[in-house]
């Protein structure tokens, strides 16, 4: 099969809907017949979309999309979207034909789909559509992995789909809202909030009621309005309106894709609230925003301070906030809830979008949301977790505080939230499209990240809408896995040591168990920091190969049986650099504190992290709170002939020149000045 036309459409659709230009913006992959023709003309594509897809499928075969599945699998590993976009775009076109009809029932979807790609009804039936539903889930998982950098995902989770739309609901969700409709939503939301009161966000069913009353006055497309009235489409319209309301920042101005959007975060530190901004990737050092606000980057992170912005209060939290300037928009959604969690990068609490099961949260709620919050806490919060309500000096007036809130069961939490609706809908856990492992007692993550102690196996988190059909080591599990997206405690299954394979919902998860960790063989040559470009990992490697490992001092051996030196680094530094006595320097990556750390019976301190030095000594340089700190790590006198290749080493040393007055450190400073001449 010739995939050339298909690949050309894949590139065009990826750039149109999933490029970094969509950073921070919701993405709806709306494609109808007219839009497909316009995209073909604009991009000078020779083959129409449907024809490009027809050429790589076999409609009459048992697995008509098998070639597309193999093609997508062969291109995994890149940062590009999964190579299924042309086929999924055709799935959306079929849905738009049905939505534009507005008369026939939704079970006619497969007739439209079959006519589009097979030329007649009854060829591409619902039985053959299963793999297409899996492609939608693959695309959604890929988009969620990028956070908001490739756009905010609007593809529903399996649990959000009505039973009769379990397969086709993904395409239907992308077919109800045109780009022109999306541009009208901010003004529509503003009018609804003014009429309905201060509480926000509203649930999707309430928003659809206002859409029925005001939709024509706001010039929404006839197809969108008909979809809201259609009993088969109405649940999807409610869902997508609710999703957009959850991220609306309170401004009536629509922000087009391509304009960077920074997320405005609430920060809690030293018993007061403040603001932070976050970009998906570090931008400029400084931005000037409206109202005299200046946004300054914090070190080499993607976080920014905001100077000149009034501290959070009940008005700015409740109504949302949007600032713009110099080609950037900074905003926070309007909400009667603020959900905060520990931020390991900044060592403080910052606001987050959603609950993460098993993590500890702090929750601030306005009076109109308090009843719903109390209901969800009562029904779904983990037993034994402290739930307090208070009124402290730093809190917004009239708001309530709940802290040390943990939800271990994501499905029970979602059910409780759906019962109360309202603002809690915005913070429900992120949808899960595929199974994964969490927790457990890893034995030797440096050797194998999926090796666990026997009896300390991880939990298996099932995807939303799990059916219970699964295999554990080739056999149906006993007892069966639950049919909801609940975690399965594998340690209760008394699995023997060895390799294990779980097959569930068309996906495979594997892991290993052992009675003890494998013995670590000492390398003949001493290995130092493994490198990725110019960044060094925080842990030493014991491998001896030519894959970019930095050896001991002077790239030589430190002698057989050399004992590694352990050095300690403070967490929370904006920058950590190791400079060796032989004229080399590396940035050091700070390892993330695992989620289960604080749940150990005796919690070890996470104030420091370790780095392992083999055969090289030097200094650890850390930039913390505006100052450089220099700590010895077995340094010797600098021993190399200064040359241009040592410019990076010299720059790091001179940056931290005032960090220590020790004579040995000053010899490094003098050598650095010699290099810089």
Write the layout of secondary structure elements.
Elements: H1 4-17, E1 26-27, H2 33-42, H3 49-54, H4 66-74, H5 85-101, H6 109-118, H7 130-145, E2 152-153, H8 169-174, H9 179-196, H10 204-214, H11 222-229, H12 234-247, E3 261-269, E4 272-278, E5 286-288, E6 294-297, E7 303-307, H13 314-319, E8 321-325, E9 328-332, E10 337-343, E11 348-351, E12 360-365, H14 367-380, E13 400-406, H15 410-420, E14 436-438, E15 451-453, E16 459-461, E17 470-472, E18 487-489, E19 498-504, E20 507-514, E21 527-532, E22 535-536, E23 549-551, E24 565-570, E25 575-580, E26 585-588, E27 608-613, E28 618-624, E29 627-633, H16 647-655, H17 663-676
Parallel strand pairs: 1-2, 3-9, 15-20, 22-26
Antiparallel strand pairs: 3-4, 3-11, 4-7, 5-6, 6-7, 8-9, 10-11, 10-12, 12-13, 14-16, 16-18, 17-19, 19-20, 21-22, 21-23, 24-27, 25-26, 25-28, 28-29
List keywords for this structure.
677 residues, alpha+beta, eleven-stranded mixed beta sheet, seven-stranded mixed beta sheet, 29 strands, 21% strand
Your description of this structure?
This protein is α+β, with helices and mostly antiparallel strands and 677 residues long. It contains 17 helices and 29 strands. The strands form six sheets. Strands 3, 4, 5, 6, 7, 8, 9, 10, 11, 12 and 13 form an eleven-stranded mixed β-sheet that branches. A hairpin with a 4-residue loop joins strand 25 (575-580) and strand 26. Helix 5 (85-101) crosses helix 7, helix 5 crosses helix 11 (222-229) and helix 16 packs across helix 17. The termini are far apart.
């Amino acid at each position: 099969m010739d995939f050339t036309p298909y690949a050309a459409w894949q590139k065009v659709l990826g750039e149109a809907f999933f490029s970094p230009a969509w950073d921070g913006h919701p993405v709806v992959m709306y494609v109808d017949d007219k839009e497909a023709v316009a995209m073909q003309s604009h991009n000078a594509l020779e083959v129409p979309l449907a024809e490009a897809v027809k050429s790589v499928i076999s409609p009459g075969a048992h697995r008509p999309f098998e070639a597309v599945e193999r093609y997508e699998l062969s291109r995994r590993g890149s940062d590009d979207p999964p190579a299924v976009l042309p086929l999924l775009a055709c799935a959306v076109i079929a849905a738009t034909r049905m939505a534009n009809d507005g008369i026939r029932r939704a079970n006619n979807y497969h007739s439209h789909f079959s006519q589009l790609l097979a030329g007649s009804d009854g060829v591409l039936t619902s039985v053959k559509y299963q793999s297409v539903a899996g492609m939608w889930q693959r695309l959604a998982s890929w988009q969620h992995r990028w956070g908001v950098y490739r756009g905010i995902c609007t593809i529903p989770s399996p649990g959000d789909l009505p039973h009769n739309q379990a397969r086709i609901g993904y395409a239907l969700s992308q077919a109800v809202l045109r780009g022109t409709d999306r541009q009208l939503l901010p003004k529509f939301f503003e009018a609804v909030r003014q009429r309905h009161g201060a509480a926000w966000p509203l649930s999707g069913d309430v928003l659809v009621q206002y859409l029925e009353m005001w939709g024509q006055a706001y010039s929404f497309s006839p197809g969108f309005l008909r979809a809201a009235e259609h009993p088969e489409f109405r649940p999807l319209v409610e869902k997508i309106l609710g999703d957009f309301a959850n991220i609306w920042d309170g401004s009536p101005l629509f922000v087009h894709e391509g304009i960077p959007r920074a997320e405005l975060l609430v920060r809690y530190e030293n018993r007061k609230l403040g603001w932070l901004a976050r970009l998906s990737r570090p931008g400029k050092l400084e931005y000037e925003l409206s109202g005299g606000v200046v946004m300054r980057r914090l070190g080499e992170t993607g976080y920014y301070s905001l100077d000149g912005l009034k501290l959070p209060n009940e008005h700015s939290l409740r109504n949302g906030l949007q600032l713009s300037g110099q080609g950037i928009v900074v905003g926070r959604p309007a909400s009667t809830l603020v959900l905060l969690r520990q931020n390991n990068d900044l060592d403080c609490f910052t606001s987050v979008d959603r609950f993460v099961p098993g993590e500890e949260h702090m929750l601030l709620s306005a009076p109109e949301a308090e009843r719903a919050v109390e209901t969800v806490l009562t029904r779904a919060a983990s037993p034994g977790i402290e739930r307090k309500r208070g009124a402290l000096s730093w809190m917004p007036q009239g708001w309530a505080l709940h802290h040390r809130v943990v939800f271990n069961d994501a499905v029970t939490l979602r059910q409780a939230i759906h019962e109360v609706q309202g603002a809690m809908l915005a913070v429900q856990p992120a949808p899960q499209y595929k199974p994964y492992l969490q927790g457990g007692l890893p034995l030797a993550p440096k050797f194998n990240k999926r090796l666990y102690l026997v009896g300390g196996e991880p939990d298996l988190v099932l995807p939303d809408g799990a059916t219970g059909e699964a295999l554990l080591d080739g056999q149906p599990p006993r007892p069966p896995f639950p049919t909801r997206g609940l975690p399965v405690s594998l340690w209760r299954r008394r699995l023997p040591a060895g390799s294990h394979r779980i097959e569930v919902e068309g996906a495979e998860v594997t892991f290993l168990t052992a009675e003890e960790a494998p013995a670590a063989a000492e390398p003949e040559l001493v290995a130092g920091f493994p490198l990725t470009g110019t960044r060094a990992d925080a842990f030493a490697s014991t491998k001896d190969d030519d894959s970019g490992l930095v050896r001991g001092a002077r790239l030589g051996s430190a002698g057989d049986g050399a004992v590694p030196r352990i050095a300690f680094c403070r967490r929370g530094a904006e920058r950590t650099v190791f400079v060796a006595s032989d004229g080399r320097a590396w940035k050091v990556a700070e390892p993330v504190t695992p989620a289960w750390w604080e749940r150990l019976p005796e919690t070890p301190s996470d104030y420091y992290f370790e780095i392992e030095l083999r055969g090289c000594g030097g200094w650890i340089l850390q930039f913390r709170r505006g100052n450089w700190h220099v700590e010895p790590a077995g340094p010797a006198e600098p021993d190399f002939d200064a040359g241009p290749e040592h410019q990076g080493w010299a720059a790091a040393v001179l940056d931290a020149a005032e960090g220590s007055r020790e004579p040995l450190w000053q010899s490094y400073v003098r050598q650095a000045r010699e290099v810089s001449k």
